[in-house]
């Protein structure tokens, strides 16, 4: 049991840095999703409704951003109140039971962002492209050229478009939208994956705190 308390103390000390890190990641997630709504920095396509449905779902804003940041901010605030009520001079490294649900909220938000960003990356961007090159009629139209790529299997289709940059030129508008889509959705995947790890660390911290209590002075 003493060794478990030492582990709890170690995790508790590490968790003091988790909150600020999650706030930074949440802000980065919101910024990345906002940029997805303005391909090439232009607001024209958003006004016309020619934005990927996965970008318009805004998982980086409500999932990886608001849910994570709100959970961290609320948990930190309640932890401060708890510490003051206990007559402590600093914020307790192990959060009270009332804040257990907040890391779980952050984990759920980050997980939702991860899944939806992965789908957005897999399906590719919405763009104005030459449909005749894919055997879907003639002329140009708005659509998902990499999602509608014939009868290819999903994995092969994704691998082809992500690893073969020569296919990116099929999108005529917005300019550079494929690279824009790949970079920002990949960033959202990385950010949300990191958020899940940090939120899991906070949950572990809470579980250990429940078992050991505040054992920092032992």
Automatic annotation (TrEMBL):
InterPro entries with a match to the protein in the record: L6_membrane
Please state the protein's primary subcellular location: membrane
Subcellular location as annotated: Membrane
- Cellular-component GO terms for this entry: membrane
Q: Which residues cross the membrane?
A: 21-41, 61-82, 178-198
- Assigned keywords, A-Z: Membrane, Transmembrane, Transmembrane helix
Q: How does it sit in the membrane?
A: Multi-pass membrane protein
Which family is annotated? Belongs to the L6 tetraspanin family.
Q: What is this protein called?
A: Transmembrane 4 L6 family member 1
The record lists the lineage as: Eukaryota, Metazoa, Chordata, Craniata, Vertebrata
């Amino acid at each position: 049991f003493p060794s478990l308390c030492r582990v709890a103390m170690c995790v508790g000390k590490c968790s003091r840095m988790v909150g600020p890190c999650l706030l930074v990641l949440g802000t980065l997630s919101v910024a990345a999703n906002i940029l997805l709504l303005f391909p090439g920095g232009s607001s024209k396509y958003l006004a016309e409704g020619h934005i990927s449905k996965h970008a318009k779902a805004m998982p980086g804003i409500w999932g990886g951003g608001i849910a994570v940041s709100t959970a961290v901010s609320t948990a930190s605030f309640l932890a401060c109140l708890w510490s003051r009520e206990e007559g402590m001079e600093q914020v307790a490294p192990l959060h009270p039971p009332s804040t257990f649900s907040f890391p779980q909220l952050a984990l759920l938000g980050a997980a939702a962002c991860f899944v939806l960003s992965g789908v957005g990356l897999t399906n590719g961007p919405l763009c104005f492209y030459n449909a005749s090159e894919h055997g879907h009629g003639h002329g140009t139209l708005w659509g998902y050229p990499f999602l509608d790529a014939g009868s290819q299997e999903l994995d092969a289709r994704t691998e082809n478009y992500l690893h073969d940059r020569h296919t990116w030129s099929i999108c005529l508008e917005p300019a550079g939208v494929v690279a824009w889509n790949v970079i920002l959705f990949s960033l959202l995947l990385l950010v949300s994956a990191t958020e899940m790890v940090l939120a899991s660390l906070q949950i572990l911290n809470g579980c250990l705190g429940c078992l050991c209590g505040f054992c920092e002075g032992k």
